User: Fold this.
Amino acid sequence: MRPREVQHTESNEENIRKFQEDFNKVKAEIEKHVIGQKSVIEKVLYAVFLGKNVLLEGLPGLGKTTLAKAISRSLDLETKRIQFTPDLMPADITGTNIIEQKPGGGISIEFNEGPIFTSICLADEINRATPKTQSAMLEAMQEKRVTIAGETKRLSDTFCVIATQNPIELEGTYPLPEAQLDRFIFKIIIEETSLEDLIAICDLTTSDYKPKIVPIINEQQLLDYRSNILSIMVPEYLKNYAARIVRATHPNNEDAPPSVKKYVNFGSSPRGLQSLIMAAKVSAASKGEISVSDENIKEVLFSSLRHRIILNFEGEAKQIDSDDLIRDILKTIIIIPESEFK
Assistant:
């Protein structure tokens, strides 16, 4: 049985318009510190407003860490940073129980919280840690809780992970497990800086001018906006379109293009469709719209699906780009017009 569609009221529409206004203000504050990469800023904000995790991939020095810190300041959220290294242990992330000697004799067991107990967890160079340590993030990323010595501890409702990674070709990196990759709503590729932006970055970082980021909203406002975002409607014909795209990432699906059937081992899980729909909703809200359009879906499509397509041996050997496979899918899957959809 499907959940009942939320009926939109004038209050909802007003809240969405207010969200659009505050979203643009937050983005403007971030752009004081982060030069260029406007599309990247928007998509990371989409993830944070939804309370979802995002993976940023790019070479060192492209501003991934700066972006994460600027977002936390503009939203007035606590942030903690974990520098992932090969010798990092799971307890360094989640925390551990410590035995303490009492002054009058006897002992007590106290829990020492790890850096994952925060609103925004910056996981820097996450693919430099071993798979065992990376797996310590799984429960927190999906369920916003951690289990330590059999005891479950809740994380903040605004908790999310902004992870950065270097391209896997670099020395000293480990591929992220598929189960962990699937928990990121987006994988965003940080492109090379343009000439104009590079000069602007140089001007900003080699002078004594340090722009201050002003918080625009607080934690409770963010949670209220999240509720408004999730109430946005998605027409049935667009849900059908998004679902057929996700199904076409599987090589055994009849709608999959020849390239997918040849080079893909596994396609997207249901989380791919969930991520695509939620991201399309916040994309629509950021533009003041109360209903999702096909343009909202296409805006977030590549970031939502590129990391969920697992290549087979031939695809790996030929270094097939998953973005090219998604382009082939878009040529195959067409939108059924609303007037013809049943």
Summary: The longest strand covers residues 95-101. The chain has 15 helices and eleven strands. The chain has two domains: 17-231, 232-334. The mean pLDDT is 88.
